[in-house]
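EI: anyone free to look at a 274-residue chain?
SC: sure, send it
EI:
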Amino acid sequence: MKPLIITTALTGAETTREYQPNLPITPNEQAACAKACFEAGSRVLHLHVREDDGRPSQRLERFEEAITKIRKAVPEMVIQISTGGAVGAPFEERMAPLQLKPDMATLNAGTLNFGDQVFINEPKDIIRLAEKFKAENVAPEIEVYESGMIDSVAKLVKKGHITHTPLHVQFVLGVPGGMSGKPKNVLYMAEHLQEEIPTATWGIAGIGRWHMPCSTIALAMGGHIRVGFEDNIFYHKGELAKSNEQLVARIARMAKDYGRPLATPQQTREILGL
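SC: here you go
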């Protein structure tokens, strides 16, 4: 069976300690969490940063501090920064951290309603961001929220705006305003991606109540899995997770029972083309 890459989205830009008291916010907390998640089986860290008061931040210095401390704590972890930021963040601020040369960063493939807000990614800005990835030699992780975005990404690949191979695409399903995490949606997204970009790898981030259904299907289909407090703060319905690493450990245990090996750090980099 294909090795499984577990990504941890440990903080996000929207989750607050009001709802999840164990949310890691400071660079020191994020570094300690990264180490614990790596030991539990995660190989990729999806990173948003916050100020000490919990406010979401795209400040370059804050990203640099967090990346430095995470790399010191767990050198083998693949660091994947977010260029999405918080909804409404100026696009120039979203692009800026690419100059820090993380292993990967996210490239959101379109605009969508995001709860009560609109997450704006205009076509011209998506192209500008894709070209910035090439200039900085950073591998993109393409985030898609519905099937039409796969078609848009395929066009960007065809036109040469996205050139990294193998391309890794993350299905983010269950965002209010985006495609839900119903099993038939996961199946369709995986099949559609295979048709449009046959060489691409894919992973799933099931938001909220869709976390376990999406993860279970990805485990069986050979996809990769994202967990963490950015996407889901519960372990069971009504029971808050104690930590990000608790969510990682559950998927690692499921993979072992299923007979699917966890990717080693070297395998992770090979699969993602790093």
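EI: The chain has nine helices and 14 strands.
SC: 👍
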